[in-house]
């Protein structure tokens, strides 16, 4: 399974290095087989000498190799640190930073052309959720406009917008229904994100169509994140 942490706008380079060192140590000591991903801020990127099943990725990028885009980070800067996994389409970039589907698709194509792993985020706001599952799925499929779903390094993260950072988690029935419907058209790994924490990760990972989690706030504590990895190691389906 894939156990991913999104640091968002948190952690300095020193703090991230200490965090990642502890996660590496835990993985090595326990021989964990989980695929672990940590998405750090640009200023915390470095060479971490990761164990083979841990990758440090980028939360964002501008779809250029390099150029005259003041304040942006291109792939040349990511390649310096060997970054080969990225987040695209996170709801905070869609709804807060106003990235359009067209721009998101452009970023996707750019990353795909460089053969990096992509965790592509989709999710619906509360006003769509209350309209029922058909409205939810229609909204989610619109977020695949311009996205090549057969890319072999694609991972989908379903994150209901109303559950991100709110403490609210979709019910297991809701998670299973959405992931099962996504599975009808997608053959890539499917993650769930949205107020995942130590107390509920076991139940979420037991959802049949769920291949892992993308965790925000609850993953920012080293011991808690290690416990999530440990729980994942004990899940059988």
TrEMBL record:
Reaction catalyzed: D-glyceraldehyde 3-phosphate = dihydroxyacetone phosphate
Native source organism of the sequence: Sulfurospirillum diekertiae
GO molecular function, one term: triose-phosphate isomerase activity
Record key words, sorted: Cytoplasm, Gluconeogenesis, Glycolysis, Isomerase
InterPro entries for this protein: Aldolase_TIM, TIM_sf, Triosephosphate_isomerase, Triosephosphate_isomerase_AS
Classification via CDD domains: TIM
Subcellular location: Cytoplasm
UniProt name for this protein: Triosephosphate isomerase
GO biological process: gluconeogenesis; glyceraldehyde-3-phosphate biosynthetic process; glycerol catabolic process; glycolytic process
Protein family: Belongs to the triosephosphate isomerase family.
Quaternary structure and interacting proteins, as annotated: Homodimer.
Enzyme Commission number: 5.3.1.1
Transmembrane parts of this sequence: none
Superkingdom classification of source: Bacteria
Biological or metabolic pathway of the protein: Carbohydrate biosynthesis; gluconeogenesis; Carbohydrate degradation; glycolysis; D-glyceraldehyde 3-phosphate from glycerone phosphate: step 1/1
One CC-aspect GO term: cytosol
């Amino acid at each position: 399974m894939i156990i991913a942490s999104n640091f968002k706008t948190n952690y300095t380079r020193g703090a991230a290095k200490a965090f990642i060192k502890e996660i590496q140590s835990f993985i090595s000591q326990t021989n964990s087989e989980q695929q672990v991903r940590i998405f750090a801020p640009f200023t915390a990127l470095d060479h971490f000498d990761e164990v083979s099943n841990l990758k440090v990725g980028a939360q964002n990028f501008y779809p250029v190799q390099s150029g005259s885009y003041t304040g942006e980070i291109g792939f040349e800067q990511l390649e310096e640190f060997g970054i080969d996994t990225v987040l695209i389409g996170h709801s905070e970039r869609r709804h807060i930073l106003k990235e359009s589907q067209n721009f998101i698709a452009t970023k996707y194509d750019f990353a795909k052309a460089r053969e990096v792993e992509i965790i592509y985020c989709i999710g619906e706001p509360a006003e769509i959720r209350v309209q029922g599952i058909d409205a939810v799925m229609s909204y989610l499929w619109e977020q695949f406009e311009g996205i090549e779903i057969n890319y072999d390094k694609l991972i989908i993260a379903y994150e209901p917008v109303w559950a991100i950072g709110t403490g609210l988690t979709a019910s297991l029935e809701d998670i299973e229904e959405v992931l099962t419907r996504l599975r009808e058209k997608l053959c890539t790994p499917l993650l769930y994100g949205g107020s995942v924490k130590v107390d509920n990760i076991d139940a979420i990972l037991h959802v049949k169509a769920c291949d892992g989690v993308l965790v925000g706030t609850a993953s920012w504590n080293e011991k808690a994140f290690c416990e999530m990895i440990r729980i994942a190691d004990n899940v059988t389906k």
